[in-house]
């Protein structure tokens, strides 16, 4: 059954890194993505973090959530590409997580499973 | 154990189709939904797509994410209803995916599982 | 293998309860969270619900989605804390759900699994 299931890779990243992530995914042939604006904090809650050149002590900072549905067979290379492209080396670079999806449907065509990606 | 687990149906659709999706879900007795604004692209990244009468060559287009927690027993009919109501037949109609949830809790009452839906 | 897997706890709550949820999670040592603005309705769709002192008959009301990646070993206490902190006792208090994640990566360090939380 290998290669027959789909995964959802979710990343919460710095807004400035979105272009790099998009390019990295495009370069490896990932066909689509969904992004949304979120806010969050990680382990340095209450400490300062730099955003757009200013120091913030507020707890929530703007982040971007990226979601990519992929063939399970590509999960390691997609995760590595997203992590690489998101990394600046400074605190607050983000988290990436992988979850399983039972089914995917492409609305226009009704295709299901890997064909729907 | 059939009928004892819950699924999350997520759809990323065209904003204009939200009312149709909402009506379709309501008509079949689905008790609730959560929506949020997202942006995305699918297979035509870099090509034009029409949104509100104008052609866009920008890569990200506004979409709506719909999330519905349901009894697993209803998953096929809910997916079919969402796909049907989202479809315009033009590119960019969206993706629907299904994932498993371990537990659901209704905050006000503390009910869990299917009773919480 | 117990304690070696991660869970994602998602809550859709009243905006006014976010501070209470944040404090409850912080008090129990949860290291991070992601929040976003959503809209939704539950079982009283079409009935009135009070938001910021005014009655609404519109169907969608503003809610906040909270997402927390945690060690599976903490799932019960995190769920209980979120449910407790979200509860006002009035309709519309929200839903909390738990799902499984296969992998988590901390972008800056490349750590994986429980070390990435
Ligand atoms: N446990 C968590 N659950 C849900 N979201 C989280 C969690 N931890 C972090 N996030 C999200 O990821 C974003 C970035 O987190 P961040 O990179 O600061 O994590 P970190 O573990 O503190 O790593 P670093 O030490 O590199 O800052 C946060 O703003 C938040 O949106
Ligand atoms: N692989 C994917 N991962 C995550 N989200 C996706 C993916 N593909 C598409 N989406 C989301 O779904 C939205 C609609 O995608 P779209 O309908 O264009 O898919 P498609 O496969 O290109 O189908 P079509 O050929 O009908 O346009 C995108 O804007 C994006 O938000
Ligand atoms: N089945 C569902 N699927 C997805 N999201 C839901 C669902 N039900 C509720 N929600 C989300 O949770 C929010 C709060 O729901 P709500 O608390 O009204 O649930 P309820 O079951 O009607 O409980 P109550 O009777 O206490 O109002 C909604 O606005 C919506 O965003
Ligand atoms: Mg941090
Ligand atoms: Mg497309
Ligand atoms: Mg309700």
From TrEMBL, chains A, B, C:
Keywords: Nucleotide-binding, Phosphoprotein, Transcription, Transcription regulation. The keyword Phosphoprotein applies. PROSITE patterns: PII_GLNB_CTER, PII_GLNB_DOM, PII_GLNB_UMP. Pfam families: P-II. Signal peptide: none annotated. Homotrimer. Belongs to the P(II) protein family. PANTHER family: NITROGEN REGULATORY PROTEIN P-II (PTHR30115), NITROGEN REGULATORY PROTEIN P-II HOMOLOG (PTHR30115:SF11). This is Nitrogen regulatory protein P-II.
């Amino acid at each position: 059954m290998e290669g027959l299931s789909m995964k959802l890779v979710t990343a919460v990243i710095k807004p400035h890194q979105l272009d790099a992530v998009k390019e990295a995914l495009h370069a490896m042939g990932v066909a689509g993505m969904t992004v949304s604006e979120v806010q969050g904090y990680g382990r340095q809650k209450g400490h300062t973090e730099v955003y757009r050149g200013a120091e913030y002590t507020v707890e929530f900072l703007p982040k971007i959530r990226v979601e990519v549905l992929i063939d399970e067979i590509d999960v390691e290379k997609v995760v590595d590409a997203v992590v690489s492209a998101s990394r600046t080396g400074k605190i607050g670079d983000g988290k990436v997580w992988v979850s399983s999806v039972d089914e995917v449907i492409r609305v226009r065509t009704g295709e299901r499973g890997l064909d729907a990606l």
